[in-house]
Specification:
Largest sheet: 4 strands, antiparallel
Strand content: 25-35%
Strand order of the largest sheet: 1-2-3-4
């Protein structure tokens, strides 16, 4: 409980130094930390590194959001240049090796904070990107394990970085 109170204090102080986007990502980061804490209790006791389960992928997804409140990762998950402000959703899928990282950058104009688009900087092996998940859901893309269709897919909204979900099988 004390950890959450301290994190809220840090979040409030640091949010005052940034724009609306900073506050939104940090708020989602705090929510991600809370959700990851709850999900960690549901994870199987045995390793699922070779075959991620829905619960494990949801936990990894929430930890990716929680990175936005980690001061040690500030320069990894948020990058600003004169032409673009990028918030990197970086998710570990499997063992912590570079080949198992998913990195999706949500891009904004650095002055107006208007959404510009997304960029996929890294896909974990052997996952692929399906740009149009389903015609019934425009604006949604998925990443899927091409070697094992029993591993749940992860859905992302092309315009809303907080609208993500792991599909149930």
């Amino acid at each position: 409980m004390l950890r959450i109170i301290l994190l809220i204090g840090v979040l409030v102080v640091s949010a005052n130094a940034g724009g609306d986007l900073d506050r939104q990502w940090k708020a989602r980061g705090l929510q991600g930390l809370e959700k990851a804490d709850s999900l960690s209790k549901l994870l199987p006791k045995t390793s699922t590194k070779n075959k991620p389960t829905k619960a494990w992928l949801e936990f990894a997804m929430e930890m990716a959001y929680a990175a936005f409140i980690n001061p040690d990762l500030k320069n990894v998950v948020k990058k600003r240049t004169s032409t673009v402000l990028a918030f990197h959703f970086i998710m570990k899928i499997g063992e912590m090796e570079e080949s198992n990282l998913l990195d999706i950058a949500y891009l904004y104009d650095p002055k107006s904070e208007v959404f510009l688009g997304i960029r996929v900087d890294r896909l974990p092996y052997p996952w692929c990107l399906r740009p149009d998940f389903d015609e019934k859901y425009p604006g949604i893309f998925s990443i899927n394990n091409v070697n094992d269709t029993s591993v749940p897919a992860i859905l992302f909204n092309k315009k809303d970085p907080f609208d993500t979900m792991v599909l149930p099988l």
